[in-house]
Amino acid sequence: MSAQPAPPTPKLIYPAPFPGRGEHIRLLLEEAGVPYIEGTLPEFQSLKSPENLGDSINTPLFAPPFLQYGDLTLSQTPNILLFLAQQFGLAGDPQDPHAVYRLNGLALTALDGFSNAVHDCHHPLGGNFYYEEQKGESLVRSKDYLKTRLPLFLGYFERVLKGEASGEGPWLHAGEFTYADLVLFQCLSGTRHQFPKAIQRAEDSGNYDLVFKLYNAVQDRPRIKAYLESNRRQKYGNGIYRHYPELDVDPEDGE
Ligand SMILES: N[C@@H](CCC(=O)N[C@@H](CS)C(=O)NCC(=O)O)C(=O)O
Fold first, then answer.
1. Domain-embedded: residue 131
2. Which position has the higher pLDDT, 88 or 4?
């Protein structure tokens, strides 16, 4: 009988000095207890290079994070998560052929509302301008986000957690912990970094108790807790989530 080949070691290529989009992938691998490697800057530059045409099976990639897993090279955060979650048992009941699509819907919604939209609060004109060149627009955008979008997305996830399909316990889907819970946790962690006062107000309101219960439950999972306390967990900086105190306003304050 021939020995089974060892499974590949996932390599995350996201060489940024802050958690960023790569963090969702790290959290999944940490929770799964799967050893992984961080790619280097030259590897990143080579993959992202305009000269790179991919290879016989892999298309060229556009923007990080990138994942290498054996011969496979992937991009797009939710796409990588979907792949890894199925590999490592974090994609719900494997007997339910539709679970991954529901989970993907939840992950995409969390990323829309608490990642892309939060980034756009400090860069509403786009990434080609410094924050200092768009401070006025950032304030307008942040007020609108905090007044309308943040409660809308928090309310949506509260509804998901109240709904029958979430099952028993603190998780989003079918009573089982999945990668969608990790995505929502990381999205809220980043949003809390950018808007600590607004998130505190939301928590104190009591309107989203199930959402914050899930957040705390993820944070307390043994492997996640150990990771968050380790030096592998980077500090927030100039990434998607940036803390500019002047943007963390109470939109009900008028003026
Ligand atoms: N939808 C993509 C977005 C990827 C993305 O925007 N990556 C950033 C770094 S976090 C980047 O380098 N973007 C370069 C660009 O958009 O030109 C994902 O979720 O992975």
1. yes
2. 88
- Yes or no: say if 131 and 139 are a contact pair by the CB < 8 Å rule: no
User: Cβ distance 172 to 166 under 8 Å?
Assistant: yes
Question: What angle do helix axes 150-162 and 99-111 make, rounded to 10 degrees?
Answer: 160
State which amino acid sits at residue 206: G
Rounded to whole angstroms, the Cα distance separating 38 from 239 reads: 18
234 assigned to some structural domain:
no
**Nearest alpha carbon, ligand 1 atom 10:** 21
Averaged pLDDT for residues 88-92 = 97
Residue 148 has which token pair? 């309308």
What is the model's pLDDT at position 254? 64
* Structural domains in the chain (count): 1
**Beta carbon of 44 within 6 Å of any ligand 1 atom:** no
Range of the domain at 121: 99-221+244-253
**Residue 28 lies inside a defined structural domain of this protein:** no
Number of C-beta neighbours around residue 118 at 10 A: 23
| Best residue for ligand 1 mutational test, from 62, 112, 114, 236 (most atoms within 8 Å of Cβ) | 62
State if residue 64 touches ligand 1 by the CB under 6 angstroms criterion.
yes
Alpha-carbon gap, residue 108 to 117, rounded angstroms: 12
Domain CATH for 114: 1.20.1050.10
Is 34 within a domain?
no
Distance 64 CA to ligand 1 centre (A): 5
User: Tokens at residue 142, please?
Assistant: 């942040």
pLDDT tens digits along 10-22: 999 999 999 999 9
